[in-house]
Amino acid sequence: MERYSPDQMELDARDVVARAIAREVSEGRGTENGGVYLDISHRDRSFLEERLPRMVERFDELGVDMAEQPVEVAPTAHYGMGGVVVDEHGETDVRNLYAIGETMAGVHGANRLGGNSLAETVAFGKVTGAAVADRLADGPGADADTVDRLAGQSLADTMAVANSDGTHDPVALFAELRAVLWDHAGLLREESSLQTGLERVASIRDRAADVAVGGPTSESFEFAMNLGFALDVAEAILRGARKRTESRGAHARTDATETDPSWRRNIVVERDSVGGMALSTRPVDDPSSEVQQALDAGYELDYHQLE
Ligand SMILES: Cc1cc2nc3c(=O)[nH]c(=O)nc-3n(C[C@H](O)[C@H](O)[C@H](O)COP(=O)(O)OP(=O)(O)OC[C@H]3O[C@@H](n4cnc5c(N)ncnc54)[C@H](O)[C@@H]3O)c2cc1C
């Protein structure tokens, strides 16, 4: 880490360390499995057991003693900063439809801090839960017949996917989609690779229209259900990353390495009139006075959150 962050070293922010690992591996200095070694053997065993109990246990199960040996590590995807646009009560622009948790957008900016995801689910659970309760207190949003009709239609659409006698395996297509995102929209991104990723997503989308699916309790049914949603999210991520010609937070472009102040904007993806995706941008709001005050105070953590 001396090459990348001589002061903070491996205790720098997660994205900095993850990118450093990715660069070491891509430049041929990684392990044969595509990782690097993390050596924390200079700390006492008691320190590791107190601060990293789950990791000590996990590596122990794998036959590696962190207090004595270096451990092999590699970055992985573990959070999506984007999500569904909601208002301050968690409501989407479809009335009575709320989104909460990792699926909603806007709380963490370009780079979520460790530990803040679980805090978010608790904080917005309270806010959104109260808003839903208030809305329900106003009476039902639709009469029972309408709800039955819409639910029946939705169930019929879902069941239509079951027992399809198509060509492609939805489980395999899902795995391929994951690999496409990792290869083309992973830690280090650039225009031509993002473009290739979009082409690969289009190819999976074509095949997803002709899948072999079992009954409603089968694994293939579950994957077939989620494949359409996952394809939309994958395409939105790749298009957004291609449009954002700068680096910011966890979005690192090797062909646009600087943060561009004119890009202090969110990219919004909507369905266009012919079923494709339309991308637009809107400025990021200013922080509330309380948040600005906290930022101005320049708090720093002396304990580094790992996740
Ligand atoms: C390895 C790892 C470590 C992490 N560590 C931390 C940490 O230390 N601190 C922290 O703050 N955050 C951490 N995070 C992030 C945090 O765990 C998640 O952001 C958070 O759990 C998201 O909660 P959620 O309720 O929004 O979504 P989830 O917990 O993902 O819940 C979504 C649920 O929806 C279900 N679902 C999906 N599709 C369908 C469908 N079509 N129909 C019905 N149900 C469906 C899923 O099965 C799941 O149960 C970590 C994440 C990972 C992967």
Summarize the structure in words.
The chain is mainly alpha-helical and 307 residues long. Among the domains are: 9-73, Succinate dehydrogenase/fumarate reductase flavoprotein, catalytic domain (Flavocytochrome C3, Chain A, domain 1, Alpha-Beta Complex); 82-149, no CATH class. The protein has nine helices and four strands, in the order αβααβαααααββα. Strand 3 (265-271) and strand 4 form a beta hairpin. Helix 6 packs antiparallel against helix 7, helix 6 packs parallel to helix 8 and helix 7 runs antiparallel to helix 8. The longest helix has 25 residues, at 219-243. The radius of gyration is 23 Å and the shape is globular. Flavin-adenine dinucleotide (FAD) binds at residues 78-79, 101-103, 115-118, 121, 225-226, 307.
Topology overview:
Layout: H1 14-26, E1 36-38, H2 45-51, H3 53-61, E2 71-73, H4 116-137, H5 144-159, H6 170-184, H7 191-208, H8 219-243, E3 265-271, E4 277-283, H9 289-297
Antiparallel strand pairs: 1-2, 3-4
Flavin-adenine dinucleotide binds at residues 78-79, 101-103, 115-118, 121, 225-226, 307.
